Amino acid sequence: MSSTMERDTVTAKRVRLTREQRLRQLLDVAWRLVREEGTDVLTLPRLAEEAAVAKPVVYDHFGTRNGLLAALYQDFDVRQTVVMDAAIAASDPTLEATVRTIAASYVDCVLTQGREMPGVLAALAGSPELAAVKRDYQLVYIEKCRKVLGPFIGQGGIAQAGFWAMLGAADGLSHSAATGEITADEAQDELYETIIAMVNRSSR
Residue 49: its pLDDT value, please? Predict the structure, then answer.
């Protein structure tokens, strides 16, 4: 077989991906584009070019640029959930260990995604449609934290405003760590103290 035929055969095999595999490939390429060039360059035609696929393939997966941004946030949220669930399952069933795990898993997940997340979050905030997507996932995360912290919450309970304050602190601290303004340890320690204070107030 000639080298040209071998290359064609390899290429043909490489592009025969399942829909799920193709989605994973496109998301990975999109994350790389955001990391290397910023969110502004992230368009569906550019993604198709970088991923070496036909434009209809990208449009079929995401529909619009907003659909792509929403998919990126969903991808981040899924990873965050997996990391947090595994960490909680492996931690000691004490308040301190649970809160430390929540703080560490949130910050670590943002740092794993690197400098891409601030740009994606900024893009989400710029669209009412995408802001609603983000809010839906935030509400799910809040309920997860409420359940995990349930055994340690006092009779006074924790108001929804308290969890939103916790989430705001988690976002701000994590993204400051991602941009190098503070260290990961500083972000985790401050978030830990914020959550501990919130839980302690519920016992008063």
Answer: 96
> Scanning the structure block, which residue is given the tokens 């309920």?
143
Is residue 106's pLDDT more than 80? yes
Q: Determine the 3-state secondary structure of 127 from DSSP.
A: coil
pLDDT value for 102: 96
Amino acid, single-letter form, for residue 173? L
Distance (Å, whole) CA 35 – CA 128: 24
Task: Give DSSP secondary structure letters for 90-107.
Answer: HS-SSHHHHHHHHHHHHH
What's the confidence (pLDDT) of residue 6? 47
Dihedral of CA atoms 105, 111, 113, 118 in degrees, nearest 10, equals: 110
Contact 120, 69 (CB under 8 A): yes
CA 66 to chain centre: 16
Residue 85 CA to residue 92 CA, distance in Å, equals 13
| Tokens encoding 167 | 């989430």
Whether residue 120 contacts residue 39, with contact meaning beta carbons closer than 8 Å, is answered with yes
Tokens representing 83 are 């990391």
Quote the Cα angle for 121-122-128, to 5°: 90
Q: What 8-state DSSP symbol labels residue 40? A: G
- Name residue 147's amino acid: K
